[in-house]
Structure formats: C-alpha cells, structure tokens
Design goal:
With about 725 residues, this protein is α+β, with helices and mostly antiparallel strands. Strands 9, 11, 12, 14, 15 and 16 form a six-stranded mixed beta sheet that branches. Strand 11 and strand 12 form a beta hairpin. Helix 1 packs parallel to helix 3.
Length: about 725
Amino acid sequence: MEAALDGLVMLSNGGIAVEDRSLIECCYFRSVELLFDAENSVRCSAVRAVSEWGQLLVALSPDKTKADWSDALFVQLCLMVRDRDMEIRVAAFSALGKIRTVSEDILMLTLAKKALSGTNEKTFPGQYTAKLFKLPATAAVFAFVNGLEDEFYQVRRSACHALKKMTVHSAKFAGEVVYILMQILNEDSVVVRLQALETLHHMAMHDLLKVEESHLDMFFGALVDGNALIRSAARKTIQLTKFQKLAMFGSCIDVLIKNLELCPQDEADVFYVLYKIGRSHGKFVTRIIHEVSEELEPSPYGKLGFTKVRTIALLVLAISAPVSLERQICTIRPEIYSYAVTLLGRLARGLGGLTDQNALLDYLSHCSRFTVGSASEIFGGEVLDFHLKDSYSQLQKTSETTCVEIVFQKVVDLWPLIQLGCVNEVVRTLRSWKEELQFFSLDSRPPAGVLVFALKYLHVIKLLGKAWAYYFSKRSLHFNGIGILEALLCKTERRLKEMLYRFKDLSRGVEMHILELMLVTYTLRLSYGGGTIFFEDYTSKVNSVFRRVEILGKEESIEPSPFLIDLQNISHEIGNSRDGFIHKPELLQKSLNLFSLKQIVVSEKLDYLDAEIDVFDNDFQNPLPFISGLPVGIPFDITLHNISLGTRLWLAITDGEKSTQFVFLDLHEFGGCNEIRKFTFVAPFFRTPKVKHLLLKVSVVMEWLSEGQHSKHLNGPKQDFIYLSKGKEIHLSTAVK
C-alpha cells in the first residue's frame, strides 16, 4: 500500500498531465481513506498523496467551488497534525505549507481553542474518522498552536515553516501569528528560533509584520542572543520592520548598540542595519540625533578619535538622516558628516552591500557643506536621492558582487550548525541564498563569473554538510551502509575540481580554501573505512594536494589552518606506508574536528569557462538520419566562453551502451576571441550500432594537467578532464526507405 501511494505521488510530480477530474477525485479520496491506516509508513505516504492529488483536484475545480475544495484539503491535512507519529506530523505541516489559498475563517480556526461563530455547522467533502465521511471545519481548531507546542522540535520547526506560507493569505491571521512567533523566540531549539525569525522576515517583506510594544522584549532579545545565526536572522528582520512610535525605534537602536558592545564581531552587520532602518525612519533619526548631538562632539582637546561603541553607532545612524542633494540641505548638523569621515574604513566595511569607500567619502564630504533645514517643512513628500547626480554611486542598489560578498560572510556561520547535525536547517538556508543569487543571474547572460562561483560554492557546502552529518551519524551508517556517503563525497570532489579548473585567475587564498575542502573530502573517505579498493588512489590524491598547498604557502606566505597542520603531521607520521591511513581512523577524525569554514574573498572579475552545444532542429520527432554500421556526421553549433586558444577541448560522445568516443576540437581552426567564440563543427561518430533508433549524449570537455592523474581513454584526452557543458541529447534514426 505504501508503494502504491508513493507511486501516486511520483505520477503527480512526473509531468504527466491528468485532466480527468473523476480519476483525480478517485485517487484523492482513496488516499484520504488511507490516512487512517494502522501502519505509520502508510499514513505518512497517504499525507503526501493527499497533498499532491488534492492540489490537482483544486486546480481542476470550477472557479465557484475552487475555494471550497482548497479549504477541504487544508482541513483534511489539519487532522494529521495530531497524529501519534512525529514524522507524520512533520509531513502534515509541510503539506499545509504548499496549499495556495485558504479562507480567512478557516485559518483563524487553527489559532483558536474552540470553533468560531459561523463555522460550527460547516462541513467539507472528506473523512473525519475511519467511519465518518463528513469533514467538519472544526477539525482545523488549534492545529497550528498544537504544532508550535509539540514536544519534538522537528514538528515545531515544520509548523513555523507552514505559517510562513499561510500568513500571506490574510492580514488578520498574520496579526495573530506575530504574537505567537514572538513567544517562540524564547524557546530552547536554535533551529526553531531560526525558522520563527525567517517567518517574521517573510512577513516583513510582505508588509505584514506589525510590531507592538508588548512584542519588543522578545523581539529585541534575539539581537543579543548567544548564537550568531540567531542575531543575524534577527537583524535581517529588524531592518525591514516599520516602527510606529519614536520610543519603539529608540529602543531598537539601544539594543543594536548593545549587540555591538557584546559582540564586536557583528560590527559590519550592525552598521548596515543601523543605516537601513535609519533610511526608513528619517524623522525619528533626526529627532534622536538632535537629542544626542553632544555625544557626537569631539573631545575637549579637539581630537576626532571616536572610540566609544555608542558614539560610533550613533554616527552611522546620523549619516542615514534625510538630505536633499539638489537643494544641498540636511536635517542634522553638517559637521557630523565630517566626523563620520574619521571612521571611513569601518563605515565602508559595514555599508559594503550598499556602496564602496570612494562613493561614501564623496557623499560625506558633499553633505558636510550643506545647510541645516527642517525635515517636516522642507522635504514634505519629496523622494530623496542618495546619489549625487550621475557622478556618485547609489547606495540603495545592491550589486551582484556585494550580494555574493555578504553570502560568503554568512556561510561561515553555518558550520557550527553542521557540526550539531542540523543539516536540514543548513540546506534550507543555503537554498534561500541560492534563490537570492539566482535572481541576479536572470539579468546576466551568461551570468557573471563571481555569481557562478558563489552558486557552486553553496552547492559544495550543501554536499559536504550532508556528508559530514551522515559520517558522524553512526545510526545512518549502520542502517544505510556507506553507499550514500560515498555518492555524496564523489559529487563533492567533482564539484571542487570544477571550481579549481573552470575559473580563471582564482586568488591563492581561494585556491588554498578549495584545496582544504578537497582534503576534508578525502579525509572523510579514508577515515570511514569505505572504498578501500581505491585506498592507494586516494592516498596519492592527499599527497598531491599537500604538495600544491606547500607551494602556495611558500609563494604567498599563507598560514595553514589547524586542520591542515594536523593532517599533514599525521601524513608525515604514517610516511610511505601503503595502508597507514586505514589503521589511523581515530587520528583522521580528530583532524576533521579541527576543520572550520573560512570567509573567502573572490575577485569580481573572475572569468568562468563555459560551453554551450546544440544541434539545430533535432529532437525525437526530428532525428538525424544514419546508416547502421557506417560513420555519421553530426553538425554542432558550439559557443565557448572565456576559453583561450591553447585550451585542449574535446567532444565526448556517449551512446546508450555508455561507451564514449572523443573528437578533438582544434580552436586554431575557428574564429572569435577568448571572451566568446561561436562556430559550427561537424563531428564524426564512427561506432553506429545496428539499431533503428540511436540516442547519443554529447558534451564539451576540457583536458587539464594534474599530477599523477591520467585518462584511460586511448583515443581521447591524455590527462583527466572536466565537463564544460551540459549533456546534449542527439536523436538519430535509420533512413526510411
């Protein structure tokens, strides 16, 4: 039964269009029946099936009944959030978060302890118990509150995530949710608090976060939390929050200053938030700066050395005050902008996502010559520009490069979560960052090299985080064997090689970091005792990477990390013994515990080596003709990006039997430049089998020099190679007589 339900889920997700509404109803209601099965695994699969087929049913319903069917699906799933099995409750909340529309009165029931007026008699098509085939609306009562108070943090986190999706359906519901989420900020689980803050941030983005004075203690408490990720998530939400009263805004500034005093390492982030909320609360900023103006004066001896944390934070807030660049009028004393220049370096680091140091200096210098005016009388409804005509940078606009820099700063904070085993939370965070970065790629074809590098880096951290959690989870290794871990490490190694060889002009520091990640991958592989058949190969890889690390250390005077030092000592201790690593798993694990992620800085002029390959008007309906047993020529349209003439490229042509033929591409025969090169090339495929239809997969690969790594292909690359393009499917068919 479980397999049948899983098959239904796969069918609904497989891209197969099902338009027979009676068939969909049949699948949906049969899945609903199985929600009451005695087996936990069957009920869990039934939840997923009800979710998928319920959404199909809603989509095919007439407009008049669409809302009712959506409510019916929502209430049916609400029943399952009280299931005795924890995994089913998690699955139920996950399914609730996928529902696109829910009526406000049904949503309000999920927060109420009893049925609301007007919902007592309301019923939906569905099943309330194994024998009762009417579904009362009251089945939704207290559903979310039960989930948020569940004994298991996984359920509480899933309920928070579902609320994130639900709040956009009703402003009234969102208002009630805010208070509940504020209470959750006091809970013990870090991952649940993070999810609560993420939900609050999502509400703020949709202008649904209405903060009351009664919320402030809990909300602001997250800004001084002992966990760096909690503080960061709280600041991310605070910068989008609109405060209705001066006292509330002032309290927020005080807590941000306290955050800075307790955690100096947060300085750049706190500066950024101070500036952002200052820009959205201009009148409040002006009043506060007027009140504290004496604190911003230099010392009695005329020195401009601002050393107090509070004074520096207030200066950051001050430069966010409203100005009219056209009229050259400001709302605070212009000399304050001169004082801020003395902190230019620190301010520039904090506002790195908004401007560069030169633009900031221009702005501060320009404003220091303004005259003071009244914000309320002079500016009125004027939209204030932050840039000075066309000659100054606009601080409001975040470039893709600075967005990448912020991601590289934040990713370091994820490693402690990975070590704690909270890999699901890490994956969700990485996914959200990936979505933000991919937003920039929509405007850039091909995407900038630094953007592609960041996306690949996030993917590597996801793979490595999963492998790390799997390795240190003895239960996973015991029940599932080492196959999953082996696959994760293979993917990680492949992606790291791509990062090393598909980007031009990587800095030595970034290259060292990638090599360190590669050593972590090899160490994990050697220490769990798996893959001993290839033990000698991986020992050789470790030694090869260490030789490159030593060269980089000498060339750039890069200080090796504790992990590198310890692993190198183990390598020297073992010496040339063929099986030394096999007998030292405890030493390797000790080295792994010393590893931590480091922040990296990547040049914005990074070039990404890429290739695109296509065959005009070819698909399964328009195959190319061929004669079995004879060679066939395939005309490819090839585009190369950032690839120099000296690069050794090949076409790798694979048939259905997984045998590969290589065809060399001599770039000297084609025009274009290194930045972009387009040409048509007819490649021969010699080994055409005796079949009527043939499917080939073709990719562009690049040969790269690697110590001790040689390809086993006789008529192809002599060295190892990496893929530069996605595999293109080519359809061929014997000529019809």
